[in-house]
Structure to design on (215 residues):
């Protein structure tokens, strides 16, 4: 199935988990930092940014992850295999032209960007970025898809100080 | 079930992300890059060459 997508984000929601899918939109360098080396990935406009929340939860932190990568090119940190912190990670991100969802990998320990850790209910999908949007195959019958728009803004209200 | 600290993990070979060594022609930065169009991590230039 093909879905048109510009700068908005696609929400793929299962019963207990979700994925956010966005297009990179422009070329940039994304650094992947492992415990032994730095790998610099040339990201292309049609590449996908996929954030997976295998246990669900609020959308906002996942949207922030999309924004950190897409707008600010924040480096991705990869934990060493068997690192105890893997079980604390509730959201993971991958950036690649094609991304497969898998429930058989340990969160945050794989530098390969063609895989993203998902829940079992959203595993087995293939997401591919195109000029018009994205192609999705293997979408579970129980999953729903909708576009999401979210802007992270900051307000700096005036604070009036009163002298005694 | 997703493996979060559990024993199951698909077996991927070590050093599985193999990048090429590049040098930026604009700022001289050397880096290991992957992807069809590598970009310099320091100056974001696409004018890079494999070394």
């Amino acid at each position: 199935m093909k879905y048109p997508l510009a700068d908005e984000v696609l929400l793929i929601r299962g019963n207990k988990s979700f994925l956010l899918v966005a297009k990179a939109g422009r070329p940039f360098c994304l650094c992947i930092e492992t415990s032994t080396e730095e790998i610099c990935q040339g990201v292309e406009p049609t590449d996908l940014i996929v954030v997976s929340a295998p246990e669900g939860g609020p959308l906002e932190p996942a949207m922030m992850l999309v924004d950190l990568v897409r707008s600010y090119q924040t480096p991705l940190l990869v934990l060493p295999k068997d690192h105890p912190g893997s079980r604390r990670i509730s959201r993971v991100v991958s950036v690649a032209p094609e991304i497969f969802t898998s429930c058989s990998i340990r969160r945050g320990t794989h530098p390969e960007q063609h895989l993203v850790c998902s829940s079992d209910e959203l595993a087995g999908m293939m997401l591919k970025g195109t000029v018009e949007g994205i192609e999705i195959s293997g979408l579970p019958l129980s999953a729903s898809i909708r576009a999401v728009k979210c802007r992270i803004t900051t307000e700096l209200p005036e604070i009036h100080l009163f002298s005694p | 079930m997703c493996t979060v600290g559990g024993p199951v993990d698909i077996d991927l070979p070590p050093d599985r992300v193999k990048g090429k060594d590049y040098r930026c022609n604009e700022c001289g930065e050397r880096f290991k890059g992957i992807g069809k169009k590598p970009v310099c991590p320091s100056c974001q230039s696409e004018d890079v060459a494999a070394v």
Q: What stands out?
A: Strands of chain B lie at 20-24, 30-34, 48-50. Residues 1-10 of chain B have pLDDT under 50 and may be disordered. The two ends of chain B are 43 Å apart (CA to CA). The interface with chain A takes residues 1-6, 8-10, 12, 16-17, 19, 22, 31-41, 44, 46 of chain B (CB under 8 Å).
